[in-house]
Design brief:
Helix 2 packs parallel to helix 10 and helix 9 packs across helix 10. This protein is 39% helix and 13% strand. The protein is built from ten helices and nine strands. It starts with a helix and ends in a 46-residue tail after the last strand.
Length: 300
């Protein structure tokens, strides 16, 4: 009996360090950052200061999207197109062209609705907004392409994440994706345009050349980033032709969103459990109060 007791004691002594080490590992283990829809928009792209640009085009497709694609093809630049479902139904051939020419399709909701609390109160309505676009883009995407979502107007409620992540297909999305450049128009006191947003440029009837000055100065100041543009206006392609060649000349690298390293932390490994990782917070997008009496000729 004494031998048995001594044997058990020895085993307990030997097991103690192992148990202690295991406890240390559990205690020191970092929380896993899972993919799926996030409770807040993903504001940090990690591209600032890297001399790298991710061009993103919202709200298409329409006939002007083809003109944007022509410009990108001539300059051998790849981009990401956030698709609106109602537009995709009208121009399905444009979706095929986007993928055929090496660009990435992404989800921008079915009707470009402001995803307010009423969508959280009506989960089926929210799911339909995302699923309709998914059903249109997924069959056209290349094998291995990743899914990204951008909320219309950058408007997002934390409750939306749980609703969409409960869907076995839609939980594959990374997003909502925000942007670094293209948020608003700002000007210096001496009349230089320092940043620009294309929809605001067209609203106040600026030329593509003037609008491009704001984009280029903002990009250079940040030395890279995710750039928000739109592919549906008559000036959309002209803006691309003003901005992109200058950046190519300056040695900027162009990537699709699935080539942005910062977003990999949100990609969901197949063997990880469901969950939501918060992204860095930031105030919602604001629209600028820009003087409409300033003409393009007055902008430096």
């Amino acid at each position: 009996m004494r031998k048995i007791a001594l044997g058990l004691g020895a085993l307990l002594v030997l097991a103690a360090p192992v148990a202690a080490d295991s406890a240390k590992l559990v205690k020191s283990a970092k929380p896993q950052q899972l993919a799926l829809f996030q409770e807040r928009s993903i504001f940090t792209s990690g591209l600032r200061g890297t001399h790298t640009i991710a061009l993103t085009f919202d709200d298409g497709p329409n006939l002007h999207t083809g003109e944007v694609l022509d410009a990108l093809r001539e300059m051998n630049v790849r981009a990401t197109f956030f698709v609106v479902g109602r537009q995709a139904r009208r121009y399905p051939e444009m979706l095929s062209r986007i993928t055929r020419e090496g660009h990435l399709l992404a989800n921008h909701s079915a009707n470009h609705a402001r995803l307010s609390t009423r969508y959280a109160a009506n989960p089926d309505m929210l799911i339909d907004e995302i699923r309709e676009v998914h059903d249109q883009i997924a069959p056209r995407m290349a094998q291995g392409d990743k899914f990204y979502f951008r909320a219309p107007y950058g408007y997002w409620k934390s409750a939306h994440a749980g609703i969409l992540n409960a869907d076995p297909e839609l939980k594959r999305y990374v997003g909502p994706i925000y942007w670094d450049v293209g948020d608003d128009i700002s000007m210096s006191r001496d009349g230089y345009v320092m940043s620009a947003a294309d929809w605001e440029c067209w609203r106040i009837k600026w030329s593509a050349k003037t609008c491009a000055k704001g984009y280029l100065r903002d990009i250079r100041r940040k030395d890279g980033g995710v750039v928000l543009m739109h592919s549906i206006q008559i000036n959309s392609a002209a803006l691309v032709r003003q901005v992109v060649p200058a950046l190519i000349e300056e040695g900027y690298r162009f990537v699709r969103l699935d080539q942005v390293p910062q977003y990999r932390q949100y990609e969901r490994p197949k063997d990880w459990p469901s969950g939501v990782a918060d992204a860095r917070d930031k105030p919602p997008v604001r629209l600028s109060a820009v003087r409409t009496d300033i003409t393009s000729d007055e902008i430096k």
